[in-house]
Amino acid sequence: MSSSTAHDQENRTLTVLCLASYFKGLDFIRECRRQGCRVLLLTSHSLAHEPWPKENIDETFYIPDVDRKWKIDDVLVGVSYMARKEHIDRIVPLDDFDVETAATLREHLRVPGMGDSTARFFRDKLAMRTQARDAGLEVPDFIHVLNYSRLSDFLDRVPAPWVLKPRSFAGSIGIKKIRSKEEFWQSLERLGDLQSYYLLEHYVPGDIYHVDSIFYEREPLFAIASRYGRPPMDVSHEGDIFTTRTLPRGSGEARPLIALNEQVLKAFGMVRGVSHSEFIRGQDGKLYFLETSARVGGAHIADLIEAATGINMWAEWAKIEIAGGKAPYQPPKPRNDSAGLMVSLARQERPDTSAYNDPEVVWRMDDKPHHVGLILKSADPGRVEQLIQSYLPRFRQDFFASQPPLERPSS
Predict the structure, then answer these.
(1) pLDDT, tens digit (0-9, with 9 covering 90-100), for 43-87
(2) So where are the chain's domains?
(3) In CATH, what class is 141-202?
(4) 266: which of 32, 45, 120, 217 is 20 to 30 A away, CA to CA?
(5) What's the pLDDT band for 403 if we cut at 50, 70, 90?
(6) What is the pTM of this model?
(7) Per-residue b or e along 51-74, where b marks 16 or more CB atoms closer than 10 Å to that residue's CB
(8) Does domain 3-113 have CATH number 3.40.50.20?
(9) Residue 166: CB partners within 8 Å, gap ≥ 6?
(10) 206-401 CATH fold
């Protein structure tokens, strides 16, 4: 390449292709535009009606989807055709389900960023557990749903209950708690030819935590630890109000979680980006790795983090992608407040939360029918906990509704 060509490329407007099989990542898109990038959006036909920030998007491309899944061959052909006219510099998945698609596209188009092999560690729960175990980290005992003889030995050796998990769905989708051998074999029969896409692991009761972090050039630049109320899987399967609250920075509860998260991400090959990782403190006092992801945490966790720290994870992710390892990057200095998040299905289409009028309420969910949510912020973590505990019974009385857990991504 001649020096003039290289100079032209360095000074050319950066083009970012955003993949979105769900309606999210609006702040990422806005920050890319604020940074002067050309922004392309590839999303599903079923999301065409959503209020995307069109003033920040140069072109939008739609692709057919079934159960929020795209045919990878359609994506490869479509994006390759797009690339005849567009010089694509970055490919970014805005949802967990898009991580593997983005990795495959990067490999195919030779665009910088996480490739197929590394992406597996952030999407495939079996690959995650195997890599974590090989790195010497504690994980719940697990086995690939594959060889029946080994499965039978596992059931004899590891006491019930167990958890049957799809390897590549997000959150609690498709997860099932298994309480007996008979129930397991019946569940396997129903899976048919899809059995190898699952793993079985020991159910470890305990407190569930999440660590949300920013990595740049293999080093952690920001991390915040939080503790869920009830485990998200229990909330999803048994019906309840989802809650989580940030832990005081530097506390004895937070420090080992942040250190463990760093171990995980370095073992998994995270170079740059954002992540949402989950851990459990078992009844034996040990911290166990559950899963991680190369994305911003869902369920409005990004809003929780921004309330507590002032850091917008979506906007920082955009800055990281744009810097691309070729320019320095440093996140803003975080504030040191505490925050708590409450989210629930609601009986009402448009729940009225005006009676929840404490000054600590800094955010209300108002953009999703039949959902209700609040974020509370205070310099005092005890005040946040007090409010959550006082609001929970009121939420149940005023709003709470439930529905069966999702077996697969919603359409």
Answers:
(1) 999 999 999 999 999 999 999 887 667 889 999 999 999 999 999
(2) 3-113, 141-202, 206-401
(3) alpha beta
(4) 32
(5) confident
(6) 0.93
(7) ebeeebbeebeebebeebebeeee
(8) yes
(9) 125, 173, 174, 175, 197, 198
(10) D-amino Acid Aminotransferase; Chain A, domain 1 (3.30.470)
